[in-house]
Predict the structure.
Amino acid sequence: MNDPLSLMARARASLAVVTAALALCWSVACQAQSAPSSPSLQLCAADLNGSGDAADPGEMAYCSPTVAGPQLCPIQEVACTADAAGQYSCPAGPQFACVTKLAGGIPACSPNQCADIAANPIVDEPPILDPGSPPDGAVDADGNCLGKIEIFAGRGMRCRPPGISTTLSNCCKDKGKIIKDGMGSSLGSIGTKVAVAKGVFQGMSAAYAAFRAGATAGQAASAGANALVVGLDPTSIAISLAVNFMIEFLFSGCDSQDMETAMLRGSGMCHEVGSYCASSFLGVCLQKARGHCCFNTKLGRIIQEQGRPQLKAFNGNLWGTPKKPMCRGFTPEEFQALDFSKMDLSEYYADIEARAQSEIQLDIKDRVDAYLKAVQPQ
Protein backbone atom coordinates (compact mmCIF):
# COMPACT_ATOMS: atom_id res chain seq x y z
CA MET A 1 0.00 0.00 0.00
CA ASN A 2 1.41 3.32 -1.00
CA ASP A 3 2.43 5.82 1.63
CA PRO A 4 -0.20 8.65 1.77
CA LEU A 5 2.50 11.23 2.21
CA SER A 6 4.30 9.91 -0.86
CA LEU A 7 1.11 10.00 -2.90
CA MET A 8 0.46 13.57 -1.81
CA ALA A 9 3.99 14.62 -2.72
CA ARG A 10 3.67 13.08 -6.19
CA ALA A 11 0.29 14.75 -6.70
CA ARG A 12 1.77 18.09 -5.81
CA ALA A 13 4.67 17.52 -8.17
CA SER A 14 2.27 16.59 -11.00
CA LEU A 15 0.19 19.66 -10.31
CA ALA A 16 3.30 21.83 -10.49
CA VAL A 17 4.25 20.32 -13.84
CA VAL A 18 0.75 20.82 -15.23
CA THR A 19 0.67 24.41 -13.96
CA ALA A 20 4.03 25.16 -15.53
CA ALA A 21 2.92 23.58 -18.81
CA LEU A 22 -0.27 25.60 -18.84
CA ALA A 23 1.67 28.76 -18.11
CA LEU A 24 4.05 27.97 -20.96
CA CYS A 25 1.16 27.22 -23.33
CA TRP A 26 -0.58 30.44 -22.30
CA SER A 27 2.60 32.40 -22.90
CA VAL A 28 3.12 30.79 -26.29
CA ALA A 29 -0.54 31.27 -27.24
CA CYS A 30 -0.43 34.92 -26.24
CA GLN A 31 2.67 35.43 -28.32
CA ALA A 32 1.32 33.57 -31.32
CA GLN A 33 -2.12 35.18 -31.24
CA SER A 34 -1.19 38.78 -30.46
CA ALA A 35 -3.94 40.48 -32.44
CA PRO A 36 -3.83 44.04 -33.72
CA SER A 37 -5.51 46.69 -31.58
CA SER A 38 -9.29 46.87 -31.77
CA PRO A 39 -10.70 49.15 -34.48
CA SER A 40 -11.53 52.70 -33.49
CA LEU A 41 -15.13 53.69 -32.91
CA GLN A 42 -16.55 55.26 -36.05
CA LEU A 43 -19.84 57.02 -36.75
CA CYS A 44 -21.93 57.82 -39.80
CA ALA A 45 -25.01 59.96 -40.33
CA ALA A 46 -27.42 60.73 -43.17
CA ASP A 47 -30.43 62.98 -43.73
CA LEU A 48 -32.90 60.33 -44.88
CA ASN A 49 -36.10 62.36 -44.75
CA GLY A 50 -34.77 65.60 -46.23
CA SER A 51 -35.33 67.59 -43.02
CA GLY A 52 -31.89 69.21 -43.22
CA ASP A 53 -30.41 67.21 -40.34
CA ALA A 54 -29.73 63.66 -39.18
CA ALA A 55 -31.40 64.05 -35.79
CA ASP A 56 -34.27 61.62 -36.39
CA PRO A 57 -34.22 57.93 -35.36
CA GLY A 58 -32.31 55.76 -37.81
CA GLU A 59 -30.29 58.63 -39.28
CA MET A 60 -27.20 58.07 -37.12
CA ALA A 61 -25.35 54.79 -36.50
CA TYR A 62 -22.05 53.34 -35.39
CA CYS A 63 -20.08 51.61 -38.13
CA SER A 64 -19.18 47.92 -38.40
CA PRO A 65 -15.56 46.67 -38.68
CA THR A 66 -14.68 44.81 -41.87
CA VAL A 67 -12.03 42.33 -43.00
CA ALA A 68 -10.36 44.81 -45.33
CA GLY A 69 -10.12 47.57 -42.71
CA PRO A 70 -12.49 50.38 -43.80
CA GLN A 71 -15.63 50.29 -41.66
CA LEU A 72 -19.14 49.92 -43.07
CA CYS A 73 -22.01 52.30 -42.34
CA PRO A 74 -25.24 50.36 -41.66
CA ILE A 75 -27.41 53.27 -42.88
CA GLN A 76 -28.74 52.36 -46.36
CA GLU A 77 -26.49 49.30 -46.34
CA VAL A 78 -27.12 46.96 -49.29
CA ALA A 79 -25.68 43.62 -50.34
CA CYS A 80 -23.28 43.74 -53.26
CA THR A 81 -24.06 41.83 -56.45
CA ALA A 82 -21.68 39.46 -58.23
CA ASP A 83 -21.20 39.25 -62.00
CA ALA A 84 -20.45 36.10 -64.00
CA ALA A 85 -16.77 36.33 -63.10
CA GLY A 86 -17.57 36.55 -59.38
CA GLN A 87 -16.63 40.22 -59.08
CA TYR A 88 -18.79 42.19 -56.63
CA SER A 89 -20.17 45.65 -57.30
CA CYS A 90 -22.24 48.09 -55.20
CA PRO A 91 -25.84 48.71 -56.37
CA ALA A 92 -25.62 52.23 -54.88
CA GLY A 93 -22.85 53.14 -57.32
CA PRO A 94 -19.41 51.98 -58.44
CA GLN A 95 -17.74 54.64 -56.26
CA PHE A 96 -18.76 52.76 -53.10
CA ALA A 97 -16.53 49.85 -52.08
CA CYS A 98 -17.81 46.37 -51.33
CA VAL A 99 -16.48 45.09 -48.01
CA THR A 100 -16.98 41.98 -45.90
CA LYS A 101 -17.86 42.28 -42.21
CA LEU A 102 -15.74 40.50 -39.61
CA ALA A 103 -18.70 38.21 -38.96
CA GLY A 104 -18.59 37.10 -42.60
CA GLY A 105 -21.40 36.95 -45.13
CA ILE A 106 -21.94 38.51 -48.54
CA PRO A 107 -19.95 41.70 -49.18
CA ALA A 108 -21.99 44.84 -48.63
CA CYS A 109 -21.71 48.58 -49.23
CA SER A 110 -23.25 51.88 -48.18
CA PRO A 111 -23.39 55.34 -49.77
CA ASN A 112 -22.66 56.87 -46.36
CA GLN A 113 -19.11 57.28 -45.17
CA CYS A 114 -17.75 56.49 -41.71
CA ALA A 115 -15.49 58.76 -39.66
CA ASP A 116 -13.43 58.22 -36.53
CA ILE A 117 -15.05 59.87 -33.50
CA ALA A 118 -11.65 60.37 -31.81
CA ALA A 119 -10.37 62.40 -34.75
CA ASN A 120 -13.72 64.06 -35.46
CA PRO A 121 -15.56 64.49 -32.13
CA ILE A 122 -19.22 65.37 -31.88
CA VAL A 123 -19.57 69.13 -31.33
CA ASP A 124 -22.09 69.99 -28.61
CA GLU A 125 -23.64 73.41 -28.00
CA PRO A 126 -23.99 74.27 -24.29
CA PRO A 127 -27.43 75.08 -22.85
CA ILE A 128 -28.62 78.65 -23.32
CA LEU A 129 -26.94 80.75 -20.64
CA ASP A 130 -29.46 83.44 -19.78
CA PRO A 131 -30.01 84.14 -16.08
CA GLY A 132 -32.72 86.68 -16.95
CA SER A 133 -33.15 90.07 -15.36
CA PRO A 134 -32.02 89.96 -11.72
CA PRO A 135 -35.05 90.55 -9.47
CA ASP A 136 -35.30 92.65 -6.37
CA GLY A 137 -32.54 95.15 -7.18
CA ALA A 138 -31.38 98.01 -5.01
CA VAL A 139 -33.93 100.63 -3.92
CA ASP A 140 -33.65 104.02 -2.24
CA ALA A 141 -35.08 105.02 1.14
CA ASP A 142 -38.48 105.61 -0.43
CA GLY A 143 -38.56 102.19 -2.11
CA ASN A 144 -37.83 103.49 -5.62
CA CYS A 145 -35.87 101.16 -7.89
CA LEU A 146 -32.32 102.36 -8.46
CA GLY A 147 -31.68 99.98 -11.34
CA LYS A 148 -33.32 99.17 -14.66
CA ILE A 149 -37.02 98.33 -14.50
CA GLU A 150 -38.26 95.57 -16.81
CA ILE A 151 -41.92 94.56 -16.92
CA PHE A 152 -42.80 90.96 -17.81
CA ALA A 153 -39.16 90.02 -18.25
CA GLY A 154 -38.33 86.50 -19.42
CA ARG A 155 -35.42 84.13 -19.66
CA GLY A 156 -33.84 82.40 -22.67
CA MET A 157 -34.08 78.61 -22.35
CA ARG A 158 -34.00 75.52 -24.51
CA CYS A 159 -35.37 71.98 -24.61
CA ARG A 160 -34.36 69.18 -26.95
CA PRO A 161 -36.58 66.90 -29.04
CA PRO A 162 -35.52 63.26 -29.59
CA GLY A 163 -31.91 62.93 -30.72
CA ILE A 164 -28.52 61.41 -29.97
CA SER A 165 -27.88 63.55 -26.88
CA THR A 166 -31.26 62.80 -25.26
CA THR A 167 -31.13 59.04 -25.90
CA LEU A 168 -34.05 59.63 -28.28
CA SER A 169 -36.22 61.00 -25.44
CA ASN A 170 -38.51 63.95 -26.19
CA CYS A 171 -37.33 66.50 -23.63
CA CYS A 172 -39.85 69.08 -24.90
CA LYS A 173 -42.84 66.83 -24.19
CA ASP A 174 -45.89 68.62 -22.79
CA LYS A 175 -46.89 67.03 -19.48
CA GLY A 176 -49.72 69.40 -18.60
CA LYS A 177 -50.07 72.63 -16.65
CA ILE A 178 -47.86 71.97 -13.65
CA ILE A 179 -47.23 75.58 -12.58
CA LYS A 180 -50.18 77.91 -12.12
CA ASP A 181 -50.49 81.68 -12.56
CA GLY A 182 -50.99 83.67 -9.37
CA MET A 183 -51.47 80.68 -7.09
CA GLY A 184 -50.19 80.86 -3.55
CA SER A 185 -48.12 83.40 -1.64
CA SER A 186 -44.91 81.52 -2.41
CA LEU A 187 -45.18 82.70 -6.03
CA GLY A 188 -45.54 86.36 -5.21
CA SER A 189 -42.11 87.62 -6.31
CA ILE A 190 -40.54 87.71 -9.74
CA GLY A 191 -38.46 84.70 -10.73
CA THR A 192 -40.17 82.17 -8.50
CA LYS A 193 -41.80 80.27 -11.36
CA VAL A 194 -38.34 79.32 -12.59
CA ALA A 195 -37.39 78.48 -8.99
CA VAL A 196 -40.33 76.08 -8.80
CA ALA A 197 -39.18 74.45 -12.03
CA LYS A 198 -35.71 74.01 -10.57
CA GLY A 199 -37.31 72.55 -7.47
CA VAL A 200 -38.81 69.78 -9.57
CA PHE A 201 -35.39 68.99 -11.02
CA GLN A 202 -34.02 68.82 -7.46
CA GLY A 203 -36.84 66.45 -6.63
CA MET A 204 -35.91 64.28 -9.59
CA SER A 205 -32.28 64.27 -8.46
CA ALA A 206 -33.33 63.13 -4.99
CA ALA A 207 -35.47 60.36 -6.49
CA TYR A 208 -32.61 59.18 -8.70
CA ALA A 209 -30.15 59.16 -5.77
CA ALA A 210 -32.59 57.11 -3.69
CA PHE A 211 -33.15 54.65 -6.53
CA ARG A 212 -29.39 54.18 -7.03
CA ALA A 213 -29.01 53.58 -3.30
CA GLY A 214 -31.37 50.60 -3.48
CA ALA A 215 -34.78 52.15 -2.92
CA THR A 216 -37.80 50.78 -4.73
CA ALA A 217 -39.48 52.89 -7.40
CA GLY A 218 -42.21 53.87 -4.90
CA GLN A 219 -39.66 54.84 -2.25
CA ALA A 220 -37.66 56.84 -4.80
CA ALA A 221 -40.81 58.68 -5.87
CA SER A 222 -41.55 59.46 -2.23
CA ALA A 223 -38.03 60.83 -1.70
CA GLY A 224 -38.42 62.99 -4.78
CA ALA A 225 -41.80 64.27 -3.64
CA ASN A 226 -40.36 65.24 -0.26
CA ALA A 227 -37.61 67.29 -1.94
CA LEU A 228 -40.11 68.71 -4.39
CA VAL A 229 -42.69 70.20 -2.06
CA VAL A 230 -40.48 71.55 0.73
CA GLY A 231 -41.25 75.25 1.16
CA LEU A 232 -43.97 75.33 -1.51
CA ASP A 233 -47.59 76.20 -1.05
CA PRO A 234 -49.47 73.05 -2.18
CA THR A 235 -51.72 75.25 -4.32
CA SER A 236 -48.80 76.71 -6.28
CA ILE A 237 -48.16 73.62 -8.41
CA ALA A 238 -50.07 70.57 -9.54
CA ILE A 239 -48.20 68.17 -7.26
CA SER A 240 -49.40 64.92 -8.80
CA LEU A 241 -48.47 66.10 -12.31
CA ALA A 242 -45.10 67.34 -11.05
CA VAL A 243 -44.29 63.98 -9.45
CA ASN A 244 -45.30 62.09 -12.60
CA PHE A 245 -43.22 64.53 -14.65
CA MET A 246 -40.25 63.94 -12.35
CA ILE A 247 -40.45 60.14 -12.50
CA GLU A 248 -40.90 60.02 -16.29
CA PHE A 249 -37.77 62.13 -16.78
CA LEU A 250 -35.83 60.05 -14.24
CA PHE A 251 -34.06 57.78 -16.72
CA SER A 252 -34.17 59.98 -19.81
CA GLY A 253 -31.27 61.88 -21.34
CA CYS A 254 -32.85 65.24 -20.43
CA ASP A 255 -30.91 67.75 -18.36
CA SER A 256 -32.11 70.36 -15.87
CA GLN A 257 -32.77 73.05 -18.50
CA ASP A 258 -34.74 70.56 -20.61
CA MET A 259 -36.93 69.89 -17.59
CA GLU A 260 -37.39 73.53 -16.63
CA THR A 261 -38.30 74.51 -20.19
CA ALA A 262 -40.66 71.57 -20.70
CA MET A 263 -42.46 72.36 -17.46
CA LEU A 264 -42.84 76.09 -18.13
CA ARG A 265 -43.70 75.38 -21.78
CA GLY A 266 -46.40 72.89 -20.78
CA SER A 267 -47.77 75.46 -18.33
CA GLY A 268 -48.21 77.99 -21.15
CA MET A 269 -45.42 80.34 -20.09
CA CYS A 270 -42.97 80.00 -23.01
CA HIS A 271 -42.77 81.43 -26.52
CA GLU A 272 -40.85 79.16 -28.91
CA VAL A 273 -38.37 81.18 -30.99
CA GLY A 274 -37.24 78.35 -33.27
CA SER A 275 -34.91 75.38 -33.65
CA TYR A 276 -31.15 75.18 -33.97
CA CYS A 277 -28.51 72.44 -34.07
CA ALA A 278 -27.25 71.45 -30.62
CA SER A 279 -24.94 68.55 -31.62
CA SER A 280 -23.20 67.98 -34.95
CA PHE A 281 -20.74 65.55 -36.51
CA LEU A 282 -18.65 66.58 -39.51
CA GLY A 283 -21.13 69.38 -40.16
CA VAL A 284 -24.16 67.04 -40.03
CA CYS A 285 -26.67 67.88 -37.28
CA LEU A 286 -27.41 64.98 -34.93
CA GLN A 287 -29.40 66.77 -32.21
CA LYS A 288 -31.71 69.76 -32.46
CA ALA A 289 -32.80 72.12 -29.71
CA ARG A 290 -35.76 74.51 -29.47
CA GLY A 291 -34.99 77.97 -28.13
CA HIS A 292 -37.65 79.70 -26.02
CA CYS A 293 -38.38 82.82 -24.06
CA CYS A 294 -40.02 81.68 -20.83
CA PHE A 295 -41.84 84.07 -18.52
CA ASN A 296 -43.04 84.03 -14.92
CA THR A 297 -46.70 83.86 -15.91
CA LYS A 298 -48.86 82.92 -18.86
CA LEU A 299 -50.19 86.49 -18.87
CA GLY A 300 -46.63 87.77 -19.25
CA ARG A 301 -46.07 85.52 -22.27
CA ILE A 302 -49.33 86.63 -23.91
CA ILE A 303 -48.65 90.35 -23.42
CA GLN A 304 -45.10 89.95 -24.70
CA GLU A 305 -46.31 88.10 -27.82
CA GLN A 306 -48.97 90.68 -28.63
CA GLY A 307 -47.16 93.76 -27.36
CA ARG A 308 -43.81 93.45 -29.09
CA PRO A 309 -45.19 93.91 -32.64
CA GLN A 310 -46.65 97.26 -31.51
CA LEU A 311 -43.26 98.72 -30.53
CA LYS A 312 -40.60 100.07 -32.90
CA ALA A 313 -37.84 98.83 -30.58
CA PHE A 314 -38.71 95.25 -31.54
CA ASN A 315 -39.34 95.81 -35.26
CA GLY A 316 -37.25 93.46 -37.38
CA ASN A 317 -36.06 91.48 -34.37
CA LEU A 318 -39.02 90.40 -32.27
CA TRP A 319 -37.38 87.49 -30.43
CA GLY A 320 -33.70 87.31 -31.38
CA THR A 321 -32.46 83.94 -32.66
CA PRO A 322 -33.28 80.38 -31.50
CA LYS A 323 -29.77 79.97 -30.06
CA LYS A 324 -29.78 83.46 -28.48
CA PRO A 325 -33.39 84.41 -27.67
CA MET A 326 -34.05 88.03 -26.73
CA CYS A 327 -36.31 87.81 -23.70
CA ARG A 328 -36.02 91.22 -22.06
CA GLY A 329 -39.01 92.86 -20.43
CA PHE A 330 -40.71 96.10 -21.39
CA THR A 331 -39.38 99.39 -20.09
CA PRO A 332 -41.98 101.50 -18.25
CA GLU A 333 -42.18 103.80 -21.29
CA GLU A 334 -42.73 100.86 -23.65
CA PHE A 335 -45.34 99.36 -21.38
CA GLN A 336 -47.27 102.65 -21.24
CA ALA A 337 -47.23 102.81 -25.06
CA LEU A 338 -48.97 99.43 -25.44
CA ASP A 339 -52.53 99.47 -26.76
CA PHE A 340 -54.29 96.77 -24.76
CA SER A 341 -57.48 97.27 -26.77
CA LYS A 342 -55.68 95.57 -29.68
CA MET A 343 -54.67 92.55 -27.62
CA ASP A 344 -56.59 89.30 -27.50
CA LEU A 345 -56.43 88.07 -23.90
CA SER A 346 -59.17 85.47 -24.32
CA GLU A 347 -56.65 82.64 -23.71
CA TYR A 348 -55.87 84.04 -20.28
CA TYR A 349 -59.50 84.83 -19.42
CA ALA A 350 -60.55 81.30 -20.34
CA ASP A 351 -57.79 79.90 -18.14
CA ILE A 352 -58.89 82.03 -15.18
CA GLU A 353 -62.52 80.99 -15.61
CA ALA A 354 -61.68 77.29 -15.87
CA ARG A 355 -59.40 77.48 -12.85
CA ALA A 356 -61.99 79.34 -10.75
CA GLN A 357 -64.60 76.69 -11.47
CA SER A 358 -62.24 73.89 -10.50
CA GLU A 359 -61.22 75.67 -7.30
CA ILE A 360 -64.84 75.97 -6.20
CA GLN A 361 -65.11 72.18 -6.39
CA LEU A 362 -61.85 71.62 -4.53
CA ASP A 363 -62.10 72.60 -0.84
CA ILE A 364 -59.36 73.19 1.70
CA LYS A 365 -59.48 69.62 3.02
CA ASP A 366 -58.75 68.21 -0.42
CA ARG A 367 -55.74 70.53 -0.79
CA VAL A 368 -54.31 69.54 2.58
CA ASP A 369 -54.89 65.83 1.88
CA ALA A 370 -53.09 66.13 -1.48
CA TYR A 371 -50.17 67.88 0.19
CA LEU A 372 -49.85 65.29 2.97
CA LYS A 373 -50.10 62.41 0.51
CA ALA A 374 -47.20 63.85 -1.48
CA VAL A 375 -44.88 64.26 1.51
CA GLN A 376 -45.71 61.14 3.52
CA PRO A 377 -43.50 58.05 2.89
CA GLN A 378 -45.14 55.32 0.88
